[in-house]
Amino acid sequence: MLDIHFIRENPEVVKKACKSKNMPADIDTLLRLDGEKREMLAQVEEKKHERNAASKRIGEMKRAGRDPGLLMDDMKKLSDEIKKADLSIAEKESVIQEILIGVPNIPHKSVPVGADASKNAFVHEWGEKKRFSFKPKVHDKLGEELDILDLKRAAKITGSGFVLFKGAGALLERALIDFMIDIHVQEHGFIEISPPFIVNRMSMFGTGQLPKLEEDMYDLEEAKYFLIPTAEVPVTNIFRDEILQEDDLPVRYVAYTPCFRKEAGSYGKDTTGMTRVHQFDKVELVKFVKPEESYQEHEDLLKCSEKILQKLDIPYRVLLLASGDMSFAAAKCYDIEAWSPGLGRYLEVSSCSNFEDFQARRMNIRFRRKKTGKNEFVHTLNSSGIALARTFIALIETYQNEDGSVTIPGALRPYMKGVEKITADK
RNA sequence: GGAGAGGUGCCAGAGUGGUUGAAUGGGGCGGUCUCGAAAACCGUUGUCCCGCUUGCGGGACCGAGGGUUCGAAUCCCUCCCUCUCCGCCA
Fold first, then answer.
1. Is the domain of A161 the same as that of A309?
2. Among candidates A320, A323, A321, A335, which has minimal Cα distance to A113?
3. Structural domain tally of chain A?
4. CA A72 distance to own-chain centroid
5. Which of A278, A289, A313 is nearest to A399 (CA)?
6. Which range has the worst mean pLDDT, A66-75, A95-104, A289-298, A397-406?
7. Annotated active-site residue in A20, A203, A232, A276
């Protein structure tokens, strides 16, 4: 959510931002209603002032034994007027809010302006794509032959877009989670969080999934709860409606959670194997920082996510998303894409975003600035560190051998209970 | 699921329908004292919104939302949450 004061003073900037993000918002109507509301507010507050003063006088008169009957009659009329005015202000306010929460965040000045992913900017790449002396297999075939992936039975149990890991596959999934959390805690100084996997509507609103993406969320209708689409939601909401101390910042959290997404509107896209699934595991990094530090923290955050792929020795590239490809709440976003030799293309395994104060304003997360004693909104950031399923894909496809076995990369071996190679006969 | 208790400021904890934005204590901040510190004492200490803007004036907020009233933290209704006991279950 943007600051209404900012919109009042910079309507053209906001309009331009909406356009570059392909997310229309009626700024003119917003500002007109806002002006009308403030005028009404001034009027009704004057009446309330009068009422407050009169009520005080009535109390005094009663205590003095005088009859305040006439004054009370007047105040009854005034009170009715106030009630009516309050009501119409509330109506106006709810329309204003509705428009306001639909205004996207403004892209940072370093973000390329462009309508879609074709305008994303290449930032850098890491690692060398492995050359195979044979034709590398795609993960689903490889996993099936090794008996570590069972997509067919997962579909029977639940439906398409779900995954069942088995034996060394399940162990590998668990090892990856464990490995990633350890790196972020021990080497990057994040604090581990294990949050609820189910959240309420307010939390989904706070991080910006609602109302825009409601159709992509699994909701638990009777309970009015939602399955989380990312740990970003519960972890960022930890400080909702709180005021932090300046010395507490930056706060850096890492959390493993499963993620649930309907993937509405993406039918037919990424249908191979488990490239796009409804439930996947992810290790997520979340930061709460001071505004003046957020862009440095953003760069550092990207490095933390990259580190995982570097340690696993999986080649990847980093893109800076164009304005039109960014999410509603983001001001700047990098994507990390791991190379999948079986599929012969890159897979997005991490999104590293700076939301500035957009989420913090929705969630009302502030900190007290020591120097001024004033409360300011924090900046929130998050990055996958990193998303499983697809890392699993890149890993087994990259480390596959001609005989169909998969070698476990060195960094992961301490987590694999002595398994150095996954073979079919095991 | 059944029975009770309760939700007030950074924390603890008062609060008769009318100078209560809120007693008191603790904490924080500033000061006196001290070589320094502790103790003691004095002062200060919520958030948001609107308007003119160094400052000031006004409004709102005592879990959330309604209602009664000239006036609600205080009375009534609905919802949410927390705690205790019983039942059930991991």
1. yes
2. A323
3. 2
4. 54
5. A313
6. A66-75
7. A276
User: Residue A350 above 90 pLDDT?
Assistant: yes
Helix axes A390-398, A168-182, angle to 10 degrees: 110
Residue A395: predicted pLDDT: 96
The phi and psi torsions of A99 (rounded to 5 degrees) equal: -70, -45
**Residue at A369 is within a domain:** yes
Chain centroid, CA A90 distance in Å: 30
Same domain, A93 and A129: no
Confidence at residue A186, expressed as pLDDT on a 0 to 100 scale: 97
Same-domain status, A208 and A300:
yes
Sole residue written with tokens 């309970």? A223
Separation of CA A329 and C1' B62 in angstroms?
A: 34
CATH code where residue A92 lies? 1.10.287.40
Tens of pLDDT along A242-272? 888 888 889 999 999 999 998 877 766 777 8
- Is A105 part of a structural domain of the chain? no
Residue with tokens 């896209």: A269
Query: How far, rounded to the nearest angstrom, does the alpha carbon of residue A202 sit from its chain's CA centroid?
Result: 14
User: Who contacts A276 (Cβ-Cβ below 8 Å, separation ≥6)?
Assistant: A161, A263, A266, A269, A270
Answer yes or no: A125 catalytic. no
Distance, angstroms, CA A311 to C1' B42? 62
Residue A227 in contact with residue A218, Cβ under 8 Å?
A: yes
Note whether A336 and A219 are same-domain residues: yes
Active site residue A390: yes
Output the six-digit token pair for A41: 């507010």
In the structure encoding, which two tokens stand for residue A141, read together?
């075939």
Q: How far is CA A371 from CA A246, A272, A374, A376, A405, in A?
A: 10, 55, 8, 12, 60
Active site residue A133: no
Nearest nucleotide to A79, CA against C1' atoms: B70
**Nucleotide B60: closest residue by CA–C1':** A45
Both structure tokens of A308: 């995982």
Q: Which nucleotides of B are covered by protein (CB under 7 A)?
A: 10, 18-19, 47-51, 58-60, 66-67, 69-71
Query: DSSP state, A2?
Result: -
DSSP per position, A316-338: EEEEEPPGGGS-TT-SEEEEEEE
Tell me, what amino acid is at A377? F
| Residue range(s) defining the domain that contains residue A45 | 4-100
Catalytic residue, chosen from A351, A353, A383, A384, is A351
